[in-house]
Amino acid sequence: MAVSVSKAGPYYASGQISFSSLRSNFRAQQRKATSGGSETFNSDTASISASQLLRNTTTTNTNPVVPNATENVNITTTTNWKTSQFRNSIKYYYATLPTADNVTNFDIDSQSWNSNLNKNINKFMFIDGTCGSNSISSTAADFNATAHNLTIDVYGSILGCGGRGGGTSGAPDPSGEGAGTALSMASSGGNNIVVLVRSGARIYGGGGGGERGKQGNNGSGGTCVDQTTNSGCGGASCPGGYNQIGRWSGGCCQTYCTGWGPWRNCNNCSQNTVYVRCERRTSTSGGTGGAGGTGGPGRGYNNQSGSLGGAAGSAGSSGGGCGAQSGQTGETGGAGGDWASAGANTNNSGNGGSGARAISGSNYSVTGTINSSTMKGAFNP
């Protein structure tokens, strides 16, 4: 990262200091019109007095003729005014993140402001490159300081982190992970802090992760039936664990004799064969339902063009036989949300992760080209 610093000035490192040049450099001068462009000037030919060229320290003044700045400390605020006090003086202060730079977690207030943030000189942070974040706990860019007359002038991209899908590594389960904010403007005090959105800018909150799919239903159980027939002379019973489901008698299995001598008869039946039909029923378990697919990742700096789709659910396991059914396939995970959108819900017990804001914080205003191409997510304080 190579943030460059430039200034409207420094003026009058040497040579004569005329009132006409002071008028041009301080009263007539306007802010830098475009990032990387030059300062422009009003057609101001009216005379200017020394009283108009006193250093103004009022922090609520949004356009001081001679601003308060570290570089302007030698310019008097009341009496004993001299043109020589304008040696190396400045009108505006610029910091620029170049177009080619691609940085994460860009800290605006830690840049080289030369202790000018809390002074009323108009300051401009031109974001021409890309700021991003790979963690939902960190914004792509942030400002957290007291400032007066600061403009965050966005030509490039500030992209929040997308949330992880439910059930993926490091994410909640089953809910999808909420996404990360693009730009945080948590200014404590100060005034006239502006986010200026240019037509080609992108300030996008991340999309939430999709919910994990529901586990598939378990398969229905089955019943194994084992039958056997036992028999016995005069009686019979079923083995342990079996229930009798039928009983009948067969031929003679035991005889007895009557009479004597030639009249003796031993073909008399005393016992018949008894048969029992026995049955044992045992239950078998149905197969376990397959795991639901993990949720898809949300759109974000960490997923600018990849798939948002959730993973397919796993197949269920086979049943334990005897008519038991296999478990159902798990539900496909919910899709991750597009920029600033929530991740999709499934039939699981959680929900898709929430989409994130484009800008969060307080004590700032947003202006410029604001539409669905430049801003995705809430942005007003």
List key phrases describing it.
381 residues, 2 domains, 6-stranded mixed β-sheet, rod-shaped, mainly beta, Immunoglobulin-like, 5-stranded parallel β-sheet, single chain
Rg on CA atoms, Å: 43 Å
Helix fraction?
under 10%
How many helices? The count is: 1
Uncertain residue ranges: none
Question: What is the N-to-C succession of helices and strands?
Answer: EHEEEEEEEEEEEEEEEEE
What kind of sheet is the major sheet? Answer: 6 strands, mixed
Average per-residue pLDDT, rounded, comes to: 94
Structural class: mainly beta
Written description of the protein model:
- This protein has one helix spanning 19-27; strands at 4-7, 92-97, 102-104, 106-107, 122-127, 130-132, 141-143, 148-154, 157-159, 183-186, 191-197, 202-204, 222-233, 243-258, 265-284, 359-362, 365-368, 375-376.
- The chain is an all-beta fold.
- It has two domains: 4-211 and 356-376, no CATH class; 222-284, Immunoglobulin-like, CATH 2.60.40.
- The chain has a six-stranded mixed sheet, with no helix packed on it. Strands 3-6-9-12-18 form a five-stranded parallel sheet, with no helix packed on it.
- β14 and β15 (265-284) form a beta hairpin.
